[in-house]
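I had to read the description of the data format several times before I understood it. In essence, backbone conformation is discretised, so a fold becomes a row of integers matching the chain in length. I therefore recommend that a typical entry be quoted early in the introduction. For illustration, here is how one protein appears when written out as sequence plus structure tokens.

***
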Amino acid sequence: MIDTIFNDRLGEKYQRLTHSSGLEILLFPKKCVTTFATLVFRFGAQDTAFRMGDREHKVPDGTAHFLEHKLFARPDGTDANEAFSRVGAEANAWTSYDKTAYLFSTSEPCDEALRTLVTFVSEPYFTRENVARERGIIREEIAMGEDDPWTRLYEQSMRAAFVRHGVRRKICGTKASVGRITHKTLQLCYNAFYRPQNAYLVVCGDMTMQDEVSVFNIYFNKNMIDDNQLESPYDLVKNGAWTYEKLYELGEVVAQDVNLDDKMGVEDIFGATHIFDAFTCMVNGIDVTFGEINDEGELELTFTDEASVVKIMDLFSWLANKDVSCFPKETGFSEMDVFMNNHTLFCFGGIYYGTTFRAMNDDYGILPFPKYDETQKDYHSSTSSLFLCLTGVPTTNTDLEKTGMFMEIFAEDGYKSVRPGFYDSLLQRKVARDDESREMLDFIFGNITYDVGVQAIQYNSNIASFIASKKDAADRAIEGIMATIRGES
């Protein structure tokens, strides 16, 4: 459930919701160029004694601040700042008496920066060696504070004002207390305090481009096309010959069992990689929709006819070829990592992937999703149902005509004022690397499908039986939705 909170005095509002993990999320939609996000954990300098399970623990002063420093460390020797830079974001962090915060700002779409933020705070890397190296850095920070008159005045004032309260402690700790902090200390505190239920995420920025950002497309490695002397995918699109059969034909040429172990894994090269989110868009791309509004204005399933089932089964057969297709869940790597590390020719994903792929060394191109076959008239681009927001109108509304008019006006104004900055400035000038990719963007955004149906299909090779077994339940669920819309329940 999403709550909207208004502040009349400031004339501001924000939205509050709780993720299934327990993380509280606060959203401040604003018309601004830069988006800001802060992830806050309720763990600060004053939290040096705590209970976890049936044991009492006491840690040295400065532990929360030390943990903030070391959470940026990565196993490959880099730090999280480099990951943020690759997606066009600038990151920082701070520790206070009662909380630790990790934040970023970006003028790009913030999806990848948010993913980077959540990923790095979820993957701590504490070792005896990297903790020992960090002690010297933190001791230098402490020395700088001791040389600053205002810092010394503040800390001494807090110690004089508070006899027992935790705010009398130095946030950075002392040179002696820092020396007692080990990798085990940091892991203990991370386990105790770095939980979704003990955190909240605040995002402030322009959040009106969900339909544009959520459009799915295909990226391809141009170097692999050239090295293998393959047909130009650009030409295939423009000639109306860009089909799934052609995509997998090209993918079969590139796919290699590099380490010769008779099984495809992360060290090998694939023809295509994708995630489950992309499947709805693949189905829409072959001219099949899950649901449509019929002549009576009601929602009905539209993918259960024989022709649609045949198309979907063919799609499954292409995806099921593990010698060509890579499903990242089976490798432990994201589809973006597989593509950026040059281990696949094609990558199905969101248009927002482009802000990450800009850091890729090999050259890449952008394509629409393929047709089912060459008899299909148009290419269809689709949107991920995971990202799109729906606007509901209460059944108590007595003036639907006026409501619809205002909604159309707002939508048109947003399209005219916001879309050019996203499409022209970001996609055309920054994400697209060549004129042909810019031309492909017009194919992608020129024919977007908004599927009102529910994503009812799973990865089940016996798709005909699966649809038959679920159809009655789906029809009942749809009838319940329509009854609610009609005000009958």
The radius of gyration is 27 Å.
